[in-house]
Amino acid sequence: MTSPHALRPESDASAHSSSASGSEADSVSGHLSSGGFGAAAAPAATLNPSADAGVLKRLWTALREVEDPEIPVSLVDMGLVVSVAYDGSTRSAQLEITYTAMGCPAMDMIQDDIRARLLREPDVERVDIAVVWDPVWTHRRLSESARHSMRELGLAV
User: How far apart are CA 157 and CA 23, in angstroms?
Assistant: First the structure.
């Protein structure tokens, strides 16, 4: 597998705004990473940074539509999406996600929802999801939008 273009959200909660910004795709061009999937470096000729960056931006936008099944907040705003990578040569999206707890009863449902949504994207034929526990999920991963929504639901954050 060639190295996909990858993007990890910024570490502070403000990086997870409720509206998709161009900064995610803008910071992608030129970032090549294995995205946690152990891919070897690809020859530069096989990569199309601008096209892959556009796909990556659309993937982040699509992920914002996938909500936590227990709380009506996007998985991105919950801080559950650790990284997203795209490999144009295999038309595959690779994600690293985490959960709020190891015993989360919705793990399979969340992964099914992610796959279903991303497979609706025209440039995606495969979605690989790796569950990671580092970084550990904490309330600091919540975006301001998620905090606001949770407060409106009467949840302490």
Answer: 27
9-14 long-range contacts (CB < 8 A, ≥24 apart) are: 9/76, 9/79, 9/81, 9/82, 9/83, 12/140, 13/79, 13/140, 13/141, 13/142, 13/143, 13/144, 13/147, 14/143, 14/144
What is the torsion angle, in degrees rounded to the nearest 10, for the CA atoms of residue 85, residue 62, residue 138 and residue 146? Answer: 150
State the sign of the Cα–Cα–Cα–Cα dihedral 14, 20, 23, 27.
positive
Torsion of CA 42, 48, 53, 59, to 10 degrees: -80
What does the pLDDT look like over 66-99, one tens digit per residue? 999 999 999 999 999 999 999 999 999 999 999 9
pTM assigned to the model: 0.71
